[in-house]
Design goal:
This protein has 202 residues and is of the alpha/beta class. Helices cover 38% and strands 20% of the residues.
Length: 202
């Protein structure tokens, strides 16, 4: 069934990096999905700049089929508005939508790859689950934690920039994030987990 849908739509996978679009959010913990997407684009030799689906996008033909790369511009809490629109347009099922986002519960420099799951308090994931009508989509979580506060201070934390040490740890995993989404598109999510579900020093 999925193969027929892909032949009709021309897009096999969606890879979306989450963040907030305003310049004041550049480099913040909550924008790790955007930062990762920029790294992927550089490695792929593409420019994620085409305005479509309330996002910046790029299409690239790959061995797995056409891939739509996205940076939603709907702000984090409404990421699903953009991703859901694209998935419906191209008839891409939830399990072929890869989401890259920050995770405050993980130490900086840690990656967690999951095939599915609930939002876990992440409003971007919550929005995507609602828009897709499913939590069965793979996600690559980028740790930005290291002493994340709770309550009202949490907002300032996620919208703040990592310190030099944390940023170095996070950026050292960008190649691993790239490789992870490549393996997932090849149908090797478990291999991606075994290789990359760890901190940089592990």
């Amino acid at each position: 069934m999925f193969s027929r849908l892909f032949q009709k739509s021309g897009v096999s996978w969606i890879v979306a990096g989450l963040g907030n679009p305003d310049s004041k959010y550049e480099g913040t913990r909550h924008n790790m999905g955007f930062i990762a997407m920029d790294h992927i684009a550089e490695k792929k030799g593409i420019s994620v700049t085409r305005a479509k689906f309330r996002s910046l996008t790029a299409l690239k033909k790959e061995e797995c089929g056409q891939v739509l790369y996205m940076k939603p511009l709907t702000y984090m809490n409404r990421s699903g508005d953009a991703i859901g629109e694209a998935a419906r347009f191209y008839k891409v099922p939830a399990d072929h939508v890869i989401v890259i986002c920050d995770d405050i519960t993980l130490p900086a420099g840690t990656i967690r790859i999951r095939a599915k799951g609930e939002a876990g308090g992440h409003n971007g994931l919550k929005s995507i689950i609602s828009a897709l009508g499913s939590s069965m989509f793979p996600r690559i979580k980028v740790g930005v934690g290291n002493g994340a506060p709770s309550g009202d201070e949490l907002i300032d934390f996620v919208l703040g920039k990592p310190n030099e040490e944390d940023l170095k740890a996070i950026m050292s995993r960008m190649d691993d994030i790239f490789s992870s989404q490549e393996l997932i598109k090849e149908g090797q999510l478990e291999l991606a987990q075994s290789r990359y579900n760890k901190g940089k020093s592990e």
